[in-house]
Amino acid sequence: MSHATASGGRCPIVSLASTKGGVGKTTLAYVLATELARRLEARTNRPFAPADAAWRGRITCIDTDPNRTLSHVLRLTGAPLITSVESDSEQLLADLRAGQARSDLVLIDLEGTANQAMLYAAGKSDLVLVPAQPSRFDVVEAVKTIGVVRKAADLVDREIAHRVVLSRTPVLRQRVAEHSRAQFVRAALPLLPIELVQRAAFQSMTYSGRPPYQQEGGEAAAENVTRLTDAVLAIIGLDLPAADHVAAAPAIAPEHDRRPHLRVVEAIA
Ligand SMILES: Nc1ncnc2c1ncn2[C@@H]1O[C@H](COP(=O)(O)OP(=O)(O)OP(=O)(O)O)[C@@H](O)[C@H]1O
Ligand SMILES: [Mg+2]
Q: 3-class DSSP state for residue 89?
């Protein structure tokens, strides 16, 4: 399997796949994209080093889900370093080629079903992430999804790295997560060491278009994203260190977000 690096020049592709809907693919795609864009921004703002010449300074997100959930929330966010592309199985390979030519990483968000787009995406990917919630049903679906990844690997005649990512695990009930981890391990499914915990910040971002690091009180969720992103980058061999938390977090809410707080203050006064 190829391990693309910035200096190697080839832009890695990471797919978010599951044969089941609602497991957290789009959530994961969004937090990865916004965290990576933030890291790219930090890189752009520091003094130029010769090794940076290979960087293109862009993340491309390809949304193959007809519901267009990812492209919608990315539009709300308006991150200048993220290019959002709406695609389908017909267009996917061409969109991937174009995305790779202009980006440091391409993320593909897939529909929650086994289809042609999933096979194409997996066949082109350096890493397939399979979100799964801590439930027996999700173990079964993860086995199915990884079955599709194995078919794609057979087609393209190379190994395709893949990891199950536990998602929506309860913050305070780690025993549930541990039990669930054991089930995935028993089914011979490789797990990412970091899971995406159940947090309000991951839900409110879908309305506000603000990733956790831009949310007041979103620190724990942002820290979760940082660790998860590090784990993903380690697998694909991409060198993009964490951004400086203080410098990169514009915590000022827009006018419409602040108004309800003002009203509360006025009522108390
Ligand atoms: N870690 C989390 N904490 C809180 N809510 C979450 C988390 N992950 C996902 N959700 C919520 O769960 C729901 C499903 O998540 P998401 O849309 O990311 O799944 P999906 O796999 O992309 O679904 P689909 O297959 O329909 O595209 C959403 O309402 C999302 O806000
Ligand atoms: Mg989705």
A: coil
